[in-house]
Amino acid sequence: METLFTTDGRQLIFAGALLFVIGLFGGLIIPAFKNRRMGLSAHLAAVQSGMAIMIFGIVWSLIDLSTGFSAFAKWALIAGNYLIWLGIMIAAMTGASKALPIAGKGFTGGPMSERVVTALETLGVALSLASGGLIIWGLARSIV
After folding, report:
1. pLDDT score of 2
2. Cα separation, 137 vs 70, whole angstroms
3. Pick from 36, 132, 144, 140: nearest CA to 76
4. d(CA 133, CA 106)
5. Is the distance from CB of 142 to CB of 62 less than 8 angstroms?
6. Is residue 1 one of the residues assigned to a domain?
7. Cα(36)–Cα(88) distance, rounded to whole angstroms?
8. Overall number of domains in the chain
């Protein structure tokens, strides 16, 4: 059976595979982080998000969205997951903990690192929620 992927699907598969590999390398350097628990969280976020992005790439042809919504959903999915991972990595390196209090318990970062991590996490989550909503909408449209 021949499997055909859309260009958007292939781009998502690549972006997900890249984040997955970044996460694997991140796992190697967990002992070097100021907050190792947050380093583990960054590693897991990258590996799991990378797999999820790849899965969305595989099923992308099933998502029924207009060209504009499809492009936004794709780039918001990629950017949102990379921003979340980057925020957690910076928190692991600096000890920032306000935006991620469970993994950050017992650590405090400087004011600038706390603001950067909060901004990255907030934007990443907003983009991920927006893309997730569009993807669910597009999948629902394709089955009715």
Report:
1. 62
2. 11
3. 132
4. 35
5. yes
6. no
7. 11
8. 1
